[in-house]
């Protein structure tokens, strides 16, 4: 299960494609498979092979290759639902990997360690002086690389 909490309109914006059939303000709480989806979940139909399963699904919204009849689910029609799902899952993974800056009270940090601005130190981390500097440099390189890709 992938946590989402986006409206169907926002899902379309993340994917960058698609036509919505139904209420674009419907909030999709998570991404689930057709057989496990509930009334507030988003699922997807890869091809015609899965249309019957989609019609039986309790999913509140679907990514589909063409508009489906016989279902109450809101639909986002995409030329390639699998690629659209991939973009959405990539977006979710990027959002979930953002660490909140700060130092957990159980972290052990050497007095000689120099911490950069906005670092995130987890509860099980032990930082020695040189290691903290290396981590800061690696994070700065990673951020610079993301800015170049962005």
Beta-strand content estimate:
15-25%
Principal-axis shape equals: elongated
Distance between the termini: 27 Å
Number of helices: 4
Oligomer classification = single chain
Structural class: alpha/beta
Low confidence ranges: none
What is the helix content? 25-40%
Describe this structure in words.
It is a single chain. With 150 residues, this protein is of the alpha/beta class. It has 2 domains: 2-96, 3-Layer(aba) Sandwich (Udp-n-acetylmuramoylalanyl-d-glutamate--2,6- Diaminopimelate Ligase, Chain: A, domain 1), CATH 3.40.1390.10; 102-149, no CATH class. Helix content is 34%, strand content 23%. The protein has 4 helices and 10 strands; from the N terminus they run E-H-E-E-E-H-E-E-H-E-E-E-E-H. It has helices spanning 8-15, 51-56, 81-96, 129-149; strands spanning 2-7, 19-21, 27-31, 41-44, 61-64, 74-77, 102-103, 108-109, 120-121, 126-127. The strands form 3 sheets. A 6-stranded mixed sheet has the order 1-3-4-5-6-2, with helices on one face. The chain has a two-stranded parallel ribbon with strand order 7-9. The longest helix has 21 residues, at 129-149. The chain is elongated, with a radius of gyration of 21 Å. The protein starts with a strand and ends with a helix.
Compact description:
This protein is of the alpha/beta class. The chain is 34% helix and 23% strand.
Q: What layout of secondary structure does this protein have?
A:
Elements: E1 2-7, H1 8-15, E2 19-21, E3 27-31, E4 41-44, H2 51-56, E5 61-64, E6 74-77, H3 81-96, E7 102-103, E8 108-109, E9 120-121, E10 126-127, H4 129-149
Parallel strand pairs: 3-4, 4-5, 5-6, 7-9, 8-10
Antiparallel strand pairs: 1-3, 2-6
């Amino acid at each position: 299960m992938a946590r989402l909490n986006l409206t169907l309109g926002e899902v379309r914006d993340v994917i960058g494609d698609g036509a919505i059939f139904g209420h674009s303000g419907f909030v999709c709480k998570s991404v689930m498979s057709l057989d496990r989806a509930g009334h507030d979940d988003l699922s997807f139909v890869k091809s015609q092979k899965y249309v019957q399963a989609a019609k039986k699904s309790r999913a509140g919204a679907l990514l589909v290759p063409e508009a489906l009849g016989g279902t109450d689910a809101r639909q986002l029609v995409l030329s390639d639902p699998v690629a659209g799902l991939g973009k959405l899952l990539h977006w979710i993974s990027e959002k979930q990997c953002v660490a909140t800056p700060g130092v957990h009270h159980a972290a052990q940090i050497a007095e000689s360690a120099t911490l950069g601005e906005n670092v995130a130190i987890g509860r099980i981390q032990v930082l020695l002086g040189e290691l903290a500097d290396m981590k800061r440099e690696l994070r700065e390189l990673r951020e610079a690389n993301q800015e170049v890709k962005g």
